[in-house]
């Protein structure tokens, strides 16, 4: 019985102008007697053994009469070059054996009969194709992704849809553009103390005026040094006594400030008396006699200045304390609104005013508080354009889903692939919510592991038209706005997602 063997080597020679393929399993009869590789342009010796075309020169390199390289006893021992002839039947038989795709190294794992290899290669999605922009050779199945996301010479638009470069730009210029993009989300200036708001250049000023956006970490205990001064004696001197006091309440701080102001007034009155006293002294006093008095007056002036400066600092500390008390309250509100079950109920009040602001391009979009797809899951939020964005601008509400950088991203499964449902709540009680559900495109950069505070938003630019939103009641009795307030619900289905 004929034996067979597996070969994994590809000859550099060619058959009819094409490279030799890599065979999966090839009968030993179709291996060259001399080089033991798959036959390349097979020729047959008089004894029946086969040899590659390029091995003939090696076989007869030392003599015109040679023995069969197989070494079998019954083979010819005086073979001449003229007795070796092409074996076309061997080629036809080899065409029936399976080979690997020519683009196996690119990722194609298909095996095909050699006779069908050419047809497969012409259609293989792993074959190389030259990018028309950067001229780089790229596997065909990755060509579109290369052009859309990687090619430095491909034209692209700002991912945030700004009009700073209306004619577009090259991807290699994108980072420089983003440094000055007016619609790129940027962190609040209070980020270093805990505010997680991200907004555009035009949104940040409005945000900073709305204290409910400021999410501040636990404020440090506020301690202060209170300067209490007292003046005694004539020009003999003034002693400034500093006492450290813990501030327990704003009322205590105000009382301390009143004491400081009283001390300052007393010092000012004493200073006037001292000047009058010096001026009324009789002429016999010399310049030398005045020197100690002038020195002490200087000390009084310095003391008064220090007390006045302390008064100014105290007012600033009171204002700071008030802001921190407000921000702590807001922090607790934020923690109450954050969910860890993959669902967010987002309340947007004062809708009429906010819609007017959006139409007048004062505040074009709003970010929801973040929520989580589990206690240690993905960090997410929503972004809403009340007057629409892109194709929905001026006619619709646009609602988008955003993947944010979270504390546990390194152990989560990427890209994000959970089913997402965006819904506008029907407040009539009939449950006729307006909703859209989508599965993330895992090839999109919007759902990859974030490398910045948040990925590019993805969702529905025409989520609901203004006409349908403002119709009261709707065709099915639904009411989407009540008491100038609407509610969005964003939910994430993690049931089909592999967790850590």
Structure description:
By secondary structure, this protein is α+β, with helices and mostly antiparallel strands. It folds into 4 domains: 4-114, Herpes Virus-1, CATH 3.30.40.10; 127-184, 2-Layer Sandwich (Herpes Virus-1), CATH 3.30.40.10; 223-331, no CATH class; 343-493, Apoptosis, Tumor Necrosis Factor Receptor Associated Protein 2, Chain A. Helices cover 28% and strands 22% of the residues. The chain is built from 10 helices and 28 strands. It has helices spanning 53-59, 88-94, 117-123, 140-150, 174-178, 204-209, 250-279, 287-337, 351-359, 466-470; strands spanning 4-5, 14-15, 18-19, 26-27, 43-44, 50-51, 65-66, 79-80, 85-86, 98-100, 111-113, 128-130, 137-139, 155-156, 169-170, 186-187, 198-199, 223-231, 238-246, 343-348, 366-367, 371-372, 379-385, 396-404, 419-424, 434-438, 458-465, 486-493. The strands form 11 sheets. Strands 21, 22, 23, 24 and 27 form a 5-stranded antiparallel β-sheet that branches. The chain has a 4-stranded antiparallel β-sheet with strand order 20-28-25-26, with no helix packed on it. The chain has a 3-stranded antiparallel β-sheet with strand order 6-5-9. It starts with a strand and ends in a 7-residue tail after the last strand. Mean pLDDT is 76; it is low at 1-17 and 211-249.
The CATH homologous superfamily of the largest domain is named Apoptosis, Tumor Necrosis Factor Receptor Associated Protein 2, Chain A
CATH architectural name of the largest domain: Sandwich
The count of domains is: 4
Largest sheet, strands/sense/barrel: 5 strands, antiparallel
Number of H/I helices: 10
């Amino acid at each position: 019985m004929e034996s067979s063997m597996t070969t994994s080597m590809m000859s550099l020679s060619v058959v009819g102008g094409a490279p030799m393929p890599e065979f999966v399993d090839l009968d030993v009869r179709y291996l060259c007697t001399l080089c033991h590789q798959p036959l390349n342009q097979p020729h047959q010796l008089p004894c029946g053994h086969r040899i590659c075309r390029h091995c003939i020169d090696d076989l007869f390199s030392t003599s015109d009469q040679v023995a069969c390289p197989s070494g079998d006893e019954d083979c010819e021992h005086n073979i001449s070059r003229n007795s070796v002839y092409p074996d076309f039947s061997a080629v036809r038989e080899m065409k029936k054996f399976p080979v690997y795709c020519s683009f196996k190294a690119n990722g194609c794992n298909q095996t095909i009969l050699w006779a069908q290899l050419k047809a497969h290669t012409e259609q293989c999605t792993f074959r190389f194709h030259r990018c028309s922009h950067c001229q780089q050779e790229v596997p065909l199945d990755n060509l579109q992704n290369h052009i859309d996301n990687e090619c430095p010479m491909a034209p692209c638009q700002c991912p945030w849809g700004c009009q700073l470069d209306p004619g577009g730009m090259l991807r290699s210029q994108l980072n420089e553009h983003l440094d000055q993009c007016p619609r790129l989300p940027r962190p609040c200036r209070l980020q270093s103390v805990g505010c997680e708001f991200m907004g555009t250049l035009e949104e940040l000023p409005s945000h900073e005026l709305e204290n409910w956006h400021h999410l501040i970490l636990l404020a440090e205990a506020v301690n202060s040094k209170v300067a209490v001064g007292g003046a005694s004696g004539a020009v003999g001197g003034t002693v400034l006594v500093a006492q450290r006091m813990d501030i327990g309440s704003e009322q205590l701080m105000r009382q301390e400030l009143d004491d400081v102001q009283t001390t300052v007034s007393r010092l000012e009155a004493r200073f006037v008396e001292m000047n009058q006293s010096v001026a009324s002294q009789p002429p016999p006093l010399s310049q030398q006699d005045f020197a100690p008095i002038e020195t002490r007056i200087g000390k009084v002036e310095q003391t008064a200045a220090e007390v006045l400066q302390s008064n100014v600092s105290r007012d600033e500390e009171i204002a700071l304390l008030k802001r921190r008390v407000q921000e702590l309250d807001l922090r607790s509100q934020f923690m109450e609104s954050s969910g860890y079950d993959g669902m967010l109920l987002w309340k947007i009040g004062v809708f009429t005013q906010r819609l007017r602001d959006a139409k007048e391009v004062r505040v074009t979009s709003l970010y929801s508080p973040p929520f989580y797809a589990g206690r240690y899951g993905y960090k997410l939020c929503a972004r809403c354009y009340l007057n629409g964005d892109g194709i929905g601008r001026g006619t619709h509400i646009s609602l988008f889903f955003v993947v944010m950088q979270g504390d546990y991203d390194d152990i989560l499964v990427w890209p994000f692939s959970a089913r997402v449902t965006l819904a506008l709540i029907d407040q009539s009680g009939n449950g006729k919510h307006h909703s859209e559900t989508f599965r993330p495109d895992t090839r999109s950069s919007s759902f990859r592991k974030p490398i910045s505070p948040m990925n590019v938003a993805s969702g529905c630019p025409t989520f609901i038209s203004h006409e349908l939103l403002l119709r009261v009641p709707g065709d099915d009795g639904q009411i989407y706005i009540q008491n100038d307030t609407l509610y969005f619900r964003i939910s994430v289905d993690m049931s089909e997602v592999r967790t850590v």
